[in-house]
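#struct-help
A.M.: can someone run this one for me? Single chain, 211 residues.
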Amino acid sequence: MAYTEKTAGSASTSVPAFDVFLSHDHADAEMVEEIGRLVRQNYGYRVWLDRWVLVPGGNWQQEMTKGLGEAATCAVFIGKQTAQGWFRQEIERALNNQAAHPDYRVIPVLLPDAPPGHPSAVLPGFLELRTWVDFRAGLSDSYALHLLRSGIAGIAPGPWPPLEMPPLAVDGDVVLDSIKRELRDLDQLKDLLHETVIIEMQRRILSRRFT
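D.P.: on it. Structure tokens below:
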């Protein structure tokens, strides 16, 4: 896979240019773009979507192949159409990336117009053994979005709905001390959790209201 270089002092580490590549059939473009907006706006993920990235006049096949290699994960969106043509080739390339790089995740995502039935029976044979995300209840399904976010971040989704922190005490000094302590404790986890998870937890701590 192709990566951008991030250098800190004398050490350099390779990081993907995109968090997720959105692979889909042309007929599902509108729904996939809406999900792309949600993951970008809600979680700050760097999304590779053909409508957003391809430059008019360029070689789209080369650019899409490059995008697959520059992303940390690939979300494969399955609708009512059978995966075929270039879409099928994209899936095969993503699976090849995963075979070469075990940390590269290929996430099957069922769209609202995907056939009914258990996902393992609906997904194409080459995807059925992978844990899926199911949007068949609608694009507004917050649990499905939570699962997709977790898959992109490479973390377990945890309980649903997410456990909320208890309200803070009314006393201003107690509130401030509690916030400082929670942020300090969270900082100890920065090497274990994805950056977007840390940011979301910080936001929750800072946005809590007095009771």
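A.M.: thanks! The chain is about 45% helix and 15% strand.
D.P.: also worth noting: The two ends are 50 Å apart (CA to CA).
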